[in-house]
Amino acid sequence: MPLTKAKKIARVNELTEALNGTPAVVVTDFTGLTTAQLTRLRRSLKTLSARYMVAKKTLLQRALKALELDDSFLAAYQSQVGLAVGRGEEAELAKTVVGFRKEAEELQVLGGFIGGQWLDQAHVLALARLPSRVVLLGQLVGTIGAPLAAFVRALNENLLGLVRVLSAKARS
């Protein structure tokens, strides 16, 4: 049954609201997925405070135009696309969607939006391979702290050497 004009307007408003200010969106083609697989994907996204929405191409184009976002990527697709919309960490959203492809090979990542910028499929897949933000921050702290720790060890060795010499001199 076709959507009435009022329902279409409501759906465009819902899409616009979901996309507005969202730091990350992963756009997918869900053709061939079963309802059970979509339900599992939605549940895995829910743990990230994200959600999965299905949108008709024309309604999504209107929502993207209302937000002044690029909609040119939609020209290559037929009717509907899936949107994984998250308010949390961008890389985690991409990891979850790309990781779900192991369970459901039919799911195709088409691209995504990060901070309002369109990313193609290759960039979203690269984003999914990044370590989490916590791991990256830990690596940064370790990198910054390594020279400092080496400097402290060097100073400590000089003092220990002096103590050893004085201790040997005191014994003799």
Report what the structure shows.
The chain is an alpha+beta fold and 172 residues long. The protein has 2 domains: 5-130, Ribosomal protein L10, N-terminal RNA-binding domain (Alpha-Beta Plaits); 133-172. It is 56% helix and 18% strand. The chain has helices at residues 5-19, 35-46, 57-66, 90-100, 121-129, 133-171; strands at residues 24-29, 50-56, 80-86, 108-114, 117-120. The chain has a 5-stranded antiparallel sheet with strand order 2-3-1-4-5, sandwiched between helices. A hairpin with a 2-residue loop joins strand 4 (108-114) and strand 5 (117-120). The longest helix has 39 residues, at 133-171. The model has no long low-confidence stretch (mean pLDDT 86).
Summarize the structure.
With 172 residues, the chain is an alpha+beta fold. The protein has helices at residues 5-19, 35-46, 57-66, 90-100, 121-129, 133-171; strands at 24-29, 50-56, 80-86, 108-114, 117-120. The chain contains 6 helices and 5 strands, in the order αβαβαβαββαα.
Give descriptors for this structure.
172 residues, alpha+beta, Alpha-Beta Plaits, 2 domains, 5-stranded antiparallel sheet, 56% helix
Order of helices and strands: HEHEHEHEEHH
Distance between the termini: 101 Å
Q: Could you give the count of β-strands?
A: 5
| Largest beta-sheet details | 5 strands, antiparallel
Instruction: Report the average pLDDT across residues.
Output: 86
- Strand content range: 15-25%
> Which descriptor suits the 3D outline?
elongated
Strand ordering within the main sheet = 2-3-1-4-5
Count the DSSP helices: 6
Classified by CATH, the class of the largest domain is Alpha Beta
List unreliable stretches of 5+ residues.
Answer: none
The CATH topology annotation of the largest domain reads as Alpha-Beta Plaits
Q: What CATH architecture of the largest domain do you see?
A: 2-Layer Sandwich
**SS content category:** alpha+beta
Helix share bin: 55-70%
Total count of domains: 2
Radius of gyration: 26 Å
CATH superfamily of the largest domain: Ribosomal protein L10, N-terminal RNA-binding domain
